[in-house]
Design goal:
By secondary structure, the protein is of the alpha+beta class. Helices cover 55% and strands 14% of the residues. It has a two-stranded parallel sheet. Helix 1 packs across helix 2, helix 1 crosses helix 4 and helix 2 runs parallel beside helix 4.
Length: 98
């Protein structure tokens, strides 16, 4: 996979194929919220049903900066969530520009 969206979609297929019920997402702390959101969306679409995810995070920024998702991070999560649902053609300025 060449993106978080692609990774979530491909990995959810692999998890479903092998009937995995629990997975751990390992990423930087600034990226793991987006990764977990996309993996959950992808697994709702392709299975496996009822899979749970936990995370291991590397604190790549000061903890005070990681406590709450920034507007930029939220826009990235929303944009990639739409892509994970298959909605690639939205191309609206506020989401695409960030």
């Amino acid at each position: 996979a060449t993106s978080t969206v692609g990774n979530a979609l491909f990995s959810s297929y692999a998890l479903a194929r092998h009937n995995i019920k629990h997975a751990t997402i390992i990423s930087s702390a600034s990226h793991v919220r987006r990764g977990q959101t996309l993996f959950e969306i992808a697994s709702w679409q392709t299975g496996p049903q009822g899979i749970t995810f936990d995370t291991v995070r590397y604190p790549d920024k000061p903890l005070k900066d990681l406590a709450k998702a920034s507007e930029s991070e939220l826009l990235g999560i929303y944009r990639d969530a739409l892509r994970t649902y298959g909605m690639w053609s939205y191309r609206s300025y506020p989401l695409e520009s960030r």
